[in-house]
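Appendix C reproduces, verbatim, an entry submitted by the partner laboratory led by Prof. M.T., so that reviewers can inspect both the input and the predicted structure.
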Amino acid sequence: MMPHLLGLRALLIGSLIVVVTSASAVELTDAEVIKILTTEQPKDRAIRRGLEFIRSEQKPSGSVGDRTPTALTSMAVMAHLAAGTTPDDPEQGAWMQRSLRFVLSQQDANGYFGQSDGSRMYGHGITALMLAEALGMTHDEDIEERLRSGLERAIAVTINAARVKKSDQHRGGWRYQPNEGSSDLSLSGWQLMSLHATQQVGITVPEEVIKNAVDYAKRLTTEDGKVGYESRGQDHAALRGLALLSLMVGGQHEAPEIARVVGRIQGDPISWQGNWFFYRAYYDAVGMARAAPEQWEAYGQRLEKILVEHQNQDGSWNAPPGGNENDHGKVYTTSMAVLALSVNRHVLPAYQR
C-alpha cells in the first residue's frame, strides 16, 4: 500500500479515536457520539462546497479552468485528493478520472507539462506533484500505468532542469523555463514538493537534486526569519511557509531558521487583505503543520475562520479586496483554499509529518 494511501486510513482511524476519547471523557451517550460523527463542521462544509464548485467548472474534455487548464486541472484534482477523494470514489471518481486523462494528454513528447497551456515550469511542477499524489490511489490499471509513466517522464524534465549550470546565487533552484540559468523560490517550491512526493511513492530521485534545492531555500532564509523570492534579505510573507516546508523535506528539523520563520509568521499573521492571500494560506498551512504542529493548532484556527467566513454562496472564493489573485480565476483560489483547509487530514505526502 502506498504511503499516502496509508494517510487516508490514518484520517479515518484518527477521527474515530478523537470521538471515542471525547465520549469517554464526558460519558456521551451512543446517540450523542453518532451526532458528533454525522454533524458537518464549518471547515468540512467549506471543503465540501468548494469541491462542488470546482466540479461544476469541468468541461467535456475533462479540463477545469481557462487560462492555464493543465495546471488548474491539476490543482483541482489535488484539492480532491487532499480532502480524501480518490479516482475510485463511487460518486466523484468518474469526475476525477476525466480530469486525470485530460492532464495526461497534455504532456509533450519530451515529458514537459508546461508548454501546451503556457504555464511553464510552474504548471509542470504543480502537475508532477499531482501525479505523484494520485499514483497508488486507483485500481484502474490503465490510469495507474499512465500516471506512473507520465510522472517518471515529468520528473526527468525536472531533474535535467535542476542540473542546468547556474551561478552560486541560483544554484539548486528552478525558473520559468527548463533551461534557464536563474531561479526563484516560489517556482522552485513546486519542483521540490513534486520531487519529494515522487520519492514517497517509490520512484528514485537523485539525492543531490533534493539537497541542492533545500540548500537553495535555506540560502534565501535569513537568521531573523526573512524569506526571499530571488535574493537573501527580501521578506515575502507568502513564501515563509514554503521555507519551513523545504527545511522539513530536507530533514533539517532542528535548523534554527525554523523557529525564526515561525515567529515571523505568528508576528505577522495572515489576514483577509493584500496580494497572494491564497498562496500564503496554502504555504502557511503546509509549512506550519509540518514544522511547528503546536503553534499550528492556534494559527490554523485563525486561518480556518478567515476562509470559512469569506467563502461565496456558490462554494468558491474570490481574492480579498485589493488582492491580485482574481486574475487566476476561481478554480485557482478555490483549489488553494481547499488545500489549505485540508492540511490536517494528512492524506497527501506534503502534509504528512
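Confidence is low (pLDDT under 50) at residues 1-25. Additional entries are available on request from the coordinating office.
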